Amino acid sequence: MGWIILAIVILIVIYIIAAYNGLVSSRIKVDNAWSQIDVQLQRRFDLIPNLVETVQGYMTHEKETLEKVTALRTSWANSNSISEKAELDNQLSGALKTIMAISENYPDLKANQNFTDLSEELRNTENKISFSRQFYNDTVTRYNVKLQIFPSNIIANMFNFTARELFKAESDEARKNVKVDFGNN
């Protein structure tokens, strides 16, 4: 009888260790997935000064949009939380869409090789950001599921594992297409 109890205790200990290690591994994967988004967002923000410099000469009356992009870049660099960075990312995406849409009104700008190269780099970066967001959300979802399903939820509660936020558009405005109006009514 003593051997059976000992075997059950050993199995329980092995399960607790395995569940704990699985939760730690999932949490690290979430942190890594966020890091991938962070890298791509930083890449985008590193491209912005070049884009702004190239565009400034052509778009003098769109100074407000260019200033907004620069201000968002500074705010992003100073933000610390995922939700703050997600909101700033959404705002920046809208501002960049506006710049690209406005550029359609400037044939010389569209023909400028620097602008073309920067636009292509931004498009590639946007695609990488989109993929990274999706990967992050998938990873967070798997982690959060582990925190809620039985019996791993018991281990998660014992060791204070907490759910993570998904990366999402924070407002209905961020989900809409950008409307560009040149006031030509």
Description of the structure:
- This protein is mainly alpha-helical and 185 residues long.
- The protein is rod-shaped.
- The C terminus is likely disordered.
Write the layout of secondary structure elements.
Layout: H1 2-56, H2 63-78, H3 82-103, H4 107-111, H5 113-148, H6 152-158, H7 172-175
Helix pairs in contact: 1-2, 1-5, 2-3
Secondary structural class: mainly alpha
Give the strand tally: 0
The global form is rod-shaped
Low-confidence stretches: 177-185
Arithmetic mean pLDDT: 79
Sum up the structure in keywords.
mainly alpha; 7 helices; 78% helix; 185 residues; disordered C terminus
Short description:
The chain has helices spanning 2-56, 63-78, 82-103, 107-111, 113-148, 152-158, 172-175. It has 185 residues and is mostly helical.
